[in-house]
Amino acid sequence: MRDSRRRCGPAAKKLALLLLAAVLLLHGTRSDPEDERCLTGLAQSLEDPGGRLVNWTKTNFAAPCSGFTSYLGGATCNNGRIYKLSLSNLSLRGSISPTLSNCTNLQALDLSSNALTGTIPPDIQSLVNLAVLNLSANRLSGEIPPQLALCAYLNVIDLHDNQLSGQIPQQLGLLVRLSAFDVSNNRLSGPIPASLGNRSGNLPRFNASSFEGNKDLYGYPLPQMKGKGLSILAIVGIGLGSGLASLILSFTGVCIWLKITDRKIALEEGKISQLMPDY
């Protein structure tokens, strides 16, 4: 009896280890339901006229990763989760789906150099691990969502060459890890927040190239707007001219009044002298 236990012992241990490995392997290939919702919604919001989204099918959305291996073109996995999406320069159309917020393990999102339209969804605030956001060279419109400030690990925000409007949110200055920031060539207006344009301490500073190409955007580090300077001078000139004209008119009026008064006095004196008797 003891001999049979000794013989079966090592075999049973090996079998148990194999079963455990199989369970772990199956667990590792199982998709996170949040990632599946994220990818499904993103695929539905995008148009891929060139067929560049390789293997972006419902089947692969259910299990996009196997450990560090991704079955989706442009996607990178880490421990069975999507942690990077790089879909730049693929001639994609459509919009950015709010369901991206479900890819909560995402650290880098690059949708640059496509033809995407619509707004930047504020739902991106749920990507708390996001470090790189590159949506440049598209046709995105609307305002920059201030909710991006909730992505505390953001190192890069690149939104240049879009059609974004409104003001740059003050809240973005709270991103102390931000080392690259570019909103050039948009339709932004108003003052550049001092927390971005004139950062203090050891925080990385951004030069004028990060903000230029926005007609109605002003403030440091952009040079003084010449158009505004001319308009101010024109206003001052008009004010001075109007004041001088008023002064001349007033002076002329006073002179005319004095002449009329002198004539009246002279006439009155003549009448009085005629009425006085001669002695």
From TrEMBL:
<keyword id="KW-0433">Leucine-rich repeat</keyword>
<keyword id="KW-0675">Receptor</keyword>
<comment type="similarity">
    <text>Belongs to the RLP family.</text>
</comment>
<keyword id="KW-0472">Membrane</keyword>
<keyword id="KW-0325">Glycoprotein</keyword>
<feature type="signal peptide">
    <location>
        <begin position="1"/>
        <end position="31"/>
    </location>
</feature>
<keyword id="KW-1003">Cell membrane</keyword>
<keyword id="KW-0677">Repeat</keyword>
<keyword id="KW-0732">Signal</keyword>
<feature type="transmembrane region" description="Helical">
    <location>
        <begin position="232"/>
        <end position="258"/>
    </location>
</feature>
<keyword id="KW-1133">Transmembrane helix</keyword>
<protein>
    <submittedName>
        <fullName>Uncharacterized protein</fullName>
    </submittedName>
</protein>
<dbReference type="GO" id="GO:0005886">
    <property type="term" value="C:plasma membrane"/>
</dbReference>
<keyword id="KW-0812">Transmembrane</keyword>
<dbReference type="InterPro" id="IPR032675">
    <property type="entry name" value="LRR_dom_sf"/>
</dbReference>
<dbReference type="InterPro" id="IPR001611">
    <property type="entry name" value="Leu-rich_rpt"/>
</dbReference>
<dbReference type="Pfam" id="PF00560">
    <property type="entry name" value="LRR_1"/>
</dbReference>
